Amino acid sequence: MPGPLHGVKIIEMTSVVLGPWACQMLADMGADVIKIEQPRGDSNRTLGAAAHPGMAALYLTCNRNKRSVVLDLRQPGAREALLEMVRGADVFVHNNRPQVMTKLGLDYADMKVVNPKLIYCGAYGYSKKGPYGALGALDDSIQAASGIAMLNKLVLGEPRYLPTVVADKTTAITLVYGVLAALFHRERTGEGQELEVPMFETMVNFVMAEHLWGMTFEPPKGPPGYTRLMSKQRKPYPTLDGYIAILPYLDAHWEKFCRLTGHPELIEDPRFRKLADRVRNIDETSNTTAAIMATRTTAEWLKIFDKSGVPTIVVNTLEDLATDPHLNATGFWKFYDHPTEGKLRMPSFPVNFGSTPADIRRHAPTLGEHTGEILREAGLSDSQIAALCASGAAMTAEQAAGTVAEGGD
Questions:
Q1: Is 367:72 a contact under the CB 8 Å cutoff?
Q2: What is the arrangement of strands in the sheet containing 312-314, beginning at the earlier edge strand?
Q3: Which of 214, 217, 242, 323 reaches 20 to 30 Å from 63, CA-CA?
């Protein structure tokens, strides 16, 4: 069965993680995603372990289910070729600063002329409406600007970035639901539109959902910051032989926790009686929980809390995830043979559709693998394609081979 976005054509002109991962999700759901790359390719083609130049790990995990076209938009004819492709597309996605797209003659006003029903989506650092609108941005800078880095100062003593590209990926998910909503609107009205998905605003929305706290009110009724999350004790608890993640959060959880651990007296302790009490006294709550958890092994605690309803789980390393029994039982890890890179492991798309399943239908393409095929689909003749390739405005896979540097760890 085809995915729910079967029949939707998306052109992406993105690199790094935000745009490629967002468009991969759309591709997993069945969209035909065409990736426009410059002659040296997406920068992620060089990042991580690699069997061949230009096919490194970070590229492979963000670009499956796509087709690749190489266009050098600095060369005559490349812009016109791209606009011909846009003429038959449903969605165009880019993650360049809007000023760059205007300079290239590829902003919404330009594309709307050739395709009034187009959904044009730009994802970049800051909304073009504000004073930061011309600034470049990457994940680290947005973690800094949105408050995430400074939240870590409360625990680690200095501002630190999270060891995951949380701003890129959260913005990518926001992009996906924005595009889906715009497609739904167009289905009802026939209208295309421009979408702007700024990373800064997305991440401030993400962070302040819980951390607005006392500043929810005007004037404020207290400082910002969700108390429980800012505790230095918020971390997995050591056991006799490892670590465990347990959160007796709700009142019913706390009561079961106290009874199952042999400490019923804590149920009526005024510091812990209600959820609000435990949050207000979060360090004492965490220290009390830690002292109890340190008395048994991880396996013993997992057995005790099995079927209790109290959220309890092992603390996995990244390596552990490859053999996690739940992930393996649900078929989360997918293995397939790439025509040039050999056997690959990929995470599944996380939404399980009952009738229109997402799937891996295409391998991550080599640079320029589909240039000729897609330009023909856009209506260009073989002679026009040959001329573009001869001038360097476009490149086939054979021409692009060797233009990407060796990857590395």
A1: no
A2: 237-238, 243-246, 312-314
A3: 323
